Amino acid sequence: MQNFFKTKEWELLWPFYIKVFIYSMFNVTVAFSVIYFFNIGLSYSEIGKLVGITGLSTIIFEIPTGVVADLLGRKFSTLFGLVIVAFCHILIPLTNSFLILAFIFGAIGFGTSFISGAYTAWFVDYLKYKRKKHLIHNAMIKFSSLASAGNVFAPLFGSILVTFLDLKWLWVIQGSGMLFSILILGIFGKEKFHKRKRTELTNLFKKSFTTTKKAIHFSFKNRNFLLMLIASIFAMLFMASGLCWQPFLVKLKMPVSYLGVFYSIIAFVGIFSPFLSKPLLVYLGKEKNVFIFSTMFGGLLILTLYFVHQPMFYFACAILIIQSIIGKAMAPTKDAYLQKLIPSKIRATAGSLTHMLISVFSIIGAITAGKVMDLVGPKFTLIYFCGFLIPAIVCYLLLKQNTSSQKIF
């Protein structure tokens, strides 16, 4: 344990680490969600719309809930959002109606908006308060690894469950596991203490507007942050093609029961992949080089799927696994790089603003992926969506290596 968790790091962050592991360990629907919705009568377009509705709901509430986190506390905002998301998962199997499911997924987006900027801001500012900001990158790596460790068990657990239970019960089990992890974080997770002023409703909206205005101003003033934001938008459009993975593999004659094994392998290699982050950064020298290499190599791998035909699902799995490793290896460097750019006073609001804009394009990407998949199938949808990586690479090429946050107050 001490080799993996430095003593002080574990002392400060163990509730966050435990929450991430348990939360992901109960992510039992990950390998079966698209298949589940398709089996209850939804088209790929409707499945894409559900994803898009989550993004739309997040957009509507993103900035206000981000400001709530900055003004009223990151812990409160995070826990409130997590509870909403957990209960929504429990409600999903109660209906086959697209309209009711759309409402539930909208509520998931609402809950997610309370979490998006607040959760990272919570532990980052807590580490800074404890004068341990050098642990931020290490924490980002371990969060990713622990999530992958939990997800190793989740798909296998799901595969076992579906041999005895209907697919719909996976949603109930996942929601229940989420609530357990939230309980641990709520009881033991610590937040930087500071006395909060009582704010009247009118004054709250005034401060909300001011904080949001500063975050928007920062987003356009800081060149590197703006470029990373644009790159993230195009990367999100590409990632929307992940909707194709399950039907793509099934069309290659992969048995549905193998999906759990496939997602468990991805999660298993994901445990170690984030630890490639630092060596990759050392080898390539600059963060921008890591972003460029990872994006180009990942895109080229997906393009090779053009040559994969039935029953070569093993080859397709290998390509998708390697592509996942690359993404996991880049993520901690990208997250830490963005955190160095954002001033602490607007960290949660700027994070929520970023998540909001990305969500706009996640809506476009999810709906487009669903419609394209209905027209040309999952294989060519995966290939066509690689085109979104080109402008992302251009943005990375334009980055300057000054990563310090600009003072804007």
Distinctive features:
409 residues; mainly alpha; Growth Hormone, Chain: A; 18 helices; 0% strand
**What value does the average pLDDT take?**
83
Question: What count of helical segments does DSSP give?
Answer: 18
The count of strands amounts to 0
Rg from Cα: 21 Å
**String of helices and strands:** HHHHHHHHHHHHHHHHHH
Structural class: mainly alpha
State the end-to-end distance.
42 Å
Q: Can you tell me the overall shape?
A: globular
- Using the 3D structure, state the CATH architecture: Up-down Bundle
CATH topology: Growth Hormone, Chain: A
Annotate the secondary structure layout:
Layout lengths: L6 H19 L7 H7 L4 H29 L1 H18 L6 H18 L2 H12 L6 H27 L6 H20 L12 H21 L1 H17 L5 H7 L6 H15 L4 H8 L2 H17 L9 H29 L5 H30 L1 H7 L4 H9 L12
Please explain how this structure is put together:
This protein has 409 residues and is mainly α. The chain has a single domain (10-397), classed as Growth Hormone, Chain: A, CATH 1.20.1250.20. The chain has 18 helices and no strands. It starts with 6 loop residues before the first helix and ends in a 12-residue tail after the last helix.
At a glance:
With 409 residues, the chain is mainly alpha-helical.
